[in-house]
């Protein structure tokens, strides 16, 4: 078996890639910033492991580590992956839900086709998107993942607010497609305090936990929130009339 599109057998635990061996140095002719980036990339054990295992990005290991810890990807499950390009989280979801599961990926960018996944190019803010995704899922989702990352500005507070805004858009969408008991996983930036997404999740889910998976670079402010046990809000039709309830 080889190539990006193969679906591997479900792994029991993620093997942690480790460094070792000689450090590779980038050749000259580059600015120091791009040389540093290239050296870090060439020496990153997760990049090597992703290449070896046929994943489209090292980010695959973040999802593997999150799922090893919290176990939200179940065989036969329906998964919606928001911010899917280039597709490594969809690859992991495919492996873990198996042939009877459903994986739908959405991104602003075009994603190279992936066997067993439906990939939609579009914007999470598009008001037509919830309906489109519900149709593609063919039923309520068991898991909504969001690794969406808007373009960064380098200004910490602005970047944190942008990441939080896109995670809130993911949560709005999740609330309209998730099955009761479902899970929501999203990228946030560490704040050291509370954030609007976590506050909302605490009201709508049984358990809310945060994790910075080992595959997430130490210098990155990203952290993932994992909420399980979705409790849909009662719709207005189901809310008892206060005049008739004693
Ligand atoms: C870090 S990448 C995701 C990597 C992916 N999880 C993987 O493993 O291959 C973040 C993605 O979020 C997407 N994104 C950002 N804003 C978005 C939006 N409003 N709607 C849909 N996708 C968005 C970007 O286009 C980008 O491809």
UniProtKB/TrEMBL annotation:
GO terms for molecular function: rRNA (uridine-2'-O-)-methyltransferase activity. Keywords: Cytoplasm, Methyltransferase, rRNA processing, S-adenosyl-L-methionine, Transferase. It catalyses: uridine(2552) in 23S rRNA + S-adenosyl-L-methionine = 2'-O-methyluridine(2552) in 23S rRNA + S-adenosyl-L-homocysteine + H(+). Its main location: cytoplasm. InterPro entries: RNA_methyltr_RlmE, RNA_MeTrfase_FtsJ_dom, rRNA-MeTfrase_E, SAM-dependent_MTases_sf. The active site is at 187 (proton acceptor). GO terms for cellular component: cytoplasm. The keyword Transferase applies. Transmembrane segments: none annotated. Residues 1-34 are annotated as: Disordered. It is found in: Cytoplasm. Gene3D superfamilies: Vaccinia Virus protein VP39 (3.40.50.150). Its EC number is 2.1.1.166. S-adenosyl-L-methionine binds at residues 87, 89, 107, 123, 147. Residues 55-230 form the Ribosomal RNA methyltransferase FtsJ domain. Specifically methylates the uridine in position 2552 of 23S rRNA at the 2'-O position of the ribose in the fully assembled 50S ribosomal subunit. Belongs to the class I-like SAM-binding methyltransferase superfamily. RNA methyltransferase RlmE family. This is Ribosomal RNA large subunit methyltransferase E. It comes from Limimonas halophila.
